[in-house]
Write a structure and sequence with these properties.
This protein has about 230 residues and is an alpha/beta fold. The chain is built from ten helices and six strands. Strands 3-2-1-4-5-6 form a six-stranded parallel sheet, with helices on both faces. Helix 2 crosses helix 5. The radius of gyration is 18 Å and the shape is globular. The N terminus is likely disordered. The chain binds 6-O-phosphono-alpha-D-glucopyranose and magnesium ion.
Length: about 230
């Protein structure tokens, strides 16, 4: 697993201090609910939208997601600003309705054990999500107290792939980016982690531009020791 070029081992030795997690699609499967909600909006407004197109929306803010759907449909001019705001509001209403059913059973496989072990080893933990619903999702999952810091998407100006939300986490944890590992399921998120100067673990990322440093096919494969061995 570790890079085997002659001297890369020593060069890449950093003490890992923190794990910083995306929420939707990494800690819980709300990525599916975001998809379902946008699908309903697309159908209602006669727009094309499928799972492939949805990959571009992962990790991206609510409003930027709508703009991407409109771009795919070359429909940016078809709706005025008021209508666009209405679509975004409606999407969030549908999404929040879907959230009503989530409980700790919706934490993705292996995540609880992974977080517990990481904490026991003294790693700092944070959540770097673009979602303004992150707080309520984490409350419903019952895992909020595990984290040392949860970024407030409302205070983040630039959406992933911009590194802002990850840098905000590093700053608030009091650690340098090169000693942090970011966990992401989206291409925009992997780019954001790289741009922050962090290293990335990917969870079933559909790679189009930049591959995660350490890719996994699912959260059940995550292993604290393996992640630390890979990056330290
Ligand atoms: C996450 C999801 C995106 C979603 C964004 C905003 O990054 O991956 O799909 O658009 O959060 O979520 P919100 O709950 O604020 O609409
Ligand atoms: Mg995600």
């Amino acid at each position: 697993m570790k890079p085997t070029t002659p001297d890369s081992g020593r060069e890449s030795r950093y003490m890992i201090r923190a794990f910083i997690f995306d929420l939707d699609g990494v800690l819980t499967d709300t990525a599916e609910y975001h998809y379902q909600a946008w699908k309903r909006i697309a159908e209602e407004y006669g727009l094309f939208f499928d799972r492939n197109a949805n990959e571009q929306l992962k990790g991206v803010s609510r409003r930027r997601s709508l703009d991407l759907i409109l771009e795919i449909n070359q429909a940016g001019q078809r709706f005025n600003e008021q209508e666009k705001e209405q679509m975004v509001r409606e999407k969030n209403r549908i999404y929040r309705n879907l959230l009503k059913n989530i409980t700790d059973r919706d934490i993705l496989p292996g995540i609880q054990g992974f977080l517990k072990e990481a904490r026991e080893r003294g790693l700092l933990l944070a959540v770097a999500s673009a979602s303004r619903n992150a707080d309520s999702v984490l409350n419903r999952l019952g895992i909020k107290p595990v984290f040392d810091y949860i970024a407030d998407a409302g205070q983040i100006a630039r959406t992933k792939p911009d590194p802002e939300v990850f840098l905000d986490c590093c700053r608030n944890l009091g650690v340098l980016p090169h000693s942090c590992i970011g966990f992401e399921d989206s291409q925009a998120g992997i780019e954001a982690i790289r741009a922050a100067g962090m290293r990335s673990v990917g969870i079933r990322v559909k790679v189009t531009t930049l591959a995660p440093d350490l890719p996994y096919q699912g959260t059940e494969e995550l292993d604290v020791q393996q992640v630390l061995d890979y990056f330290e």
